[in-house]
Amino acid sequence: MVYLAQRLQQLRRQKGLSQENLAEQLGVSRQAVGKWESGAAVPELEKLLEEVRLVIGEYGDSVSGEEEQQYFEEQNYY
Question: What is the spatial distance between Cα 70 and Cα 32, in angstroms, rounded to a whole number?
Answer without folding.
Answer: 23
